[in-house]
Predict the 3D structure of the following.
Amino acid sequence: MGDSNLYLRRQHERLLITTEHRAAPSHDDLALELRTHGEALALHVVDNPPQPTLAEVTPDRVDALIQKVLARSPSPVRRDVLRQACRVRNQTLGEALERLIHSGRIERSNDGYRLVQD
């Protein structure tokens, strides 16, 4: 950690950069996009980035994504694979997995998660 830090992260289809400074308040996230210039690639600040909708990260949507990934897999799926496939935060994934286990729709084994067979 230094006096000034930049953090680049992906939020759904958007790239965001967050700034931090030890002695100053941070700014709002800046949206970035990757552009090509000939054979080179560069990040550019987006003037009017599209705002994410609440529908993108609703619990029902995350639950459905998890079940879709599990339905396509012939074997149990590890948590890290689910997180990558669903592209959600670890906390969001954990909450969804708990909901699905508690409702009896999925089960956890030593090998990962799988749908409960009817």
Observations:
- The mean pLDDT is 84.
- The radius of gyration is 19 Å.
- The beta strands are 4-11, 14-21, 30-37, 40-45, 106-109, 112-115.
